[in-house]
Amino acid sequence: MEQIGILEGREKQIFEKKDGGQAFDISCETTSLSGSVSQRACVFCGSRVVLYPVADALHLVHGPIGCAAYTWDIRGAVSSGPELHRLSFSTDLREMDVIYGGEKKLYASLIELIEKFSPKAAFIYSTCIIGLIGDDIDAVCRKVAKETGIPVLPVHSEGFKGTKKDGYKAACTALMKLVGTGPIEDISPYSINILGEFNLAGEAWIIRKYYEEMGIEVVSTMTGDGRVGAVRRAHGATLNVVQCSGSMTSLAKDMEAKYGIPYIRVSYFGIEDMSAALYDVAKHFPDRPEIMEKAKEIVSREVRNLYPKLQKFKAALSGKKAAIYVGGAFKTFSLIKALRSVGMSVVLAGSQTGNKEDYLALKEMCDEGTVIVDDSNPVELSKFILEKEADLLIGGVKERPIAFKLGVGFCDHNHERKIPLAGFEGMYNFILEVYQSVMSPVWQFAPRKGGSL
Questions:
Q1: Is the keyword Aminoacyl-tRNA synthetase in the record (predicted)?
Q2: Which of 229, 226, 254 is closest to 240 using CA atoms?
Q3: Domain ends where: 176, 205, 224?
Q4: Does pTM surpass 0.85?
Q5: Which of 338, 201, 189, 357 is nearest to 261 (CA)?
Q6: Has residue 453 got a pLDDT over 50?
């Protein structure tokens, strides 16, 4: 394992915390190094992550059919009602379309799909080829919107022009065109928007229930179980609560600038951060002290129920080591706290989209010897998992094969999971999955554990 090296040019995006208080300097928010096989996705992927959960909108990929493979069934986003978002549509551009342009095909596709499905809005995603041939999708969208009477919104998500984080920004730009176009007269002054919660496995319903029990009106969730009508009314909320800061902070800032709505950053993972997410919202409404009292009541009830259940896991997991590599750095903070609550330490912590501020906070949280990485790749992840003797890797679908090939447990904290991990009940689900993964008897047969295959 000592022979696994770091690619030249990647050194500045890796930091190991050591005794002595060395100066912290990590490079981030850069394009991926050529040849590093980055775990990041493209701009197009980032835009789909944010917008796909809007369930009553039409989602049309303008480009080759291959890009349309990034569907609901890869990402997942459950709905309590319409499921138009589960259908993947593409203009399926071919060679002649590339030569002569795809605007006519885009127009015809939109008219046909809007007539058939009657969506509340339509999002049109540009792919790499559109950026090359120069189709004017804005003009097509304006024309179709005028003819059909629904918002038709271009999403400038050409994959090659940046990173997944740029895709988030493109999606937020499209959402801002919807925000402010709906009525707000009946919205309570004690109201919020939940930003950055995508309802992969029903988390948005759990979080909404907590806030509504506190007496808070949730105007919109952007975008988990999202509705076009709710997004259009979002400017009537009193506060924006941003859960996935990497994907939605730009929207929160735009809404603050245009509508004067303040925002706070929260996390819904783990006991400590879930409790803080309720308290921080309650603090925003000091003229209604009963909201804070209700938040305390919810936290007390849920922790009283949850804490004893976690102790049996703690007895088995204490001393075990985890590696974390996820999309946004803010999620990493919560995962570290959650793992510590059952006696586990974190030996590797990294993200795809973290910024300097995130990594500085991460450095302060981590133990001595922890490796912090930005925009890592499979070789690096393998190197540090082996060197630090991690028992578990927490990541997404692209990291799963790395863990299994190395003979360590894996916990999916991203796209494909079907069990909610947010909220108090989500904390139990998370630790249960960690326990089942780390303590599985199968690892005695893994080569690195001294067994044989």
A1: no
A2: 254
A3: 176
A4: yes
A5: 189
A6: no
